[in-house]
Amino acid sequence: MKPGFGATAFHVVNYGFLTAVALMTFVPFLYVVLVSFADPTEYLTNPVMIVPAHWSLSSYRYILSTSMFMHSMGVSAILAIAGTIFSLIVTSALAYGLSRKRLKGRTFFSVAILLTMLFNPGMIPNFLLVDSLGLMDTIWSLILPALTSAWYVLLMVNFYKEIPDELEEAAKIDGCSDIGVYFRIMLPVSVSALAAFGLFFAVAYWNTYFNAILYINRDSLRPMQVVLQMMLIAASTQVADPAAAVMLESEQKIPPQVIKMAAVVVSSLPIVAVYPFLQKYFVKGMMVGSVKG
């Protein structure tokens, strides 16, 4: 059937609206990337440029100029990889245990986990806890406080409840213990959920900033986000005070705004590079545990 005028008008308005929303979302990211490659002198004269007339890598040379930044990238990478692995193991194992009706104290543990979503002890109690455990100035102070999320645990619990009990019983008949069932049955069938939650955990660990400010005093353990902030502050000081004691090289005297754009690109690039490999699991994983039946 040939669509009528009303249907055609609806499609035109709908596509136009979605295109406008897509442009509103995409243009700011494009602007950040373009400005990060802008020549410093051009940006100072025309800060609202769309496409730079002169391209420059000055901001990236400044960010990558110190060994401290490269070391901080390694710290952030280790933090993201190790933290994500531990978080996925803890979250899925805890959810699997809570999904089994035979677990004693299952209701108590479920309520205790739910309460952590409603009541947050705050910054000072968390700091005192980390300090009392002797985790200050260690990589574990950035992993253990953010090891899992109550919301992800509850979603995983609902996901494991939807798995037929016969699958677990068949594995036990073949000689699997509870740990064997978890590693050989539950983890393989929950790949989509683990991929989605793993991406969220990886982004959180990669962007670790506030906890590092609180718990880390050693330069060798500072993650990338903290080092970038320190470099931005240093660049702002140099621009504001040309008589500062530590002067940058002439090619590195660039506006802090351009450095910020380059910092956003550098910090976002690894996650953006990983996302396409997890995209096929992402949509399915986001629906995990959200629908019953």
TrEMBL record:
Membrane topology annotation: Multi-pass membrane protein
Lineage top rank: taxon: Bacteria
Cited Pfam families: BPD_transp_1
Localization terms from the record: Cell membrane
Annotated organism of origin: Gordoniibacillus kamchatkensis
Family the UniProt entry places it in: Belongs to the binding-protein-dependent transport system permease family.
Protein name: ABC transporter permease
PROSITE patterns: ABC_TM1
Keywords annotated in UniProt: Cell membrane, Membrane, Transmembrane, Transmembrane helix, Transport
Transmembrane regions listed in the UniProt entry: 12-38, 74-96, 108-127, 139-160, 181-206, 258-278
Gene3D superfamilies hit by this protein: MetI-like
Residue stretches making up the ABC transmembrane type-1 domain: 73-278
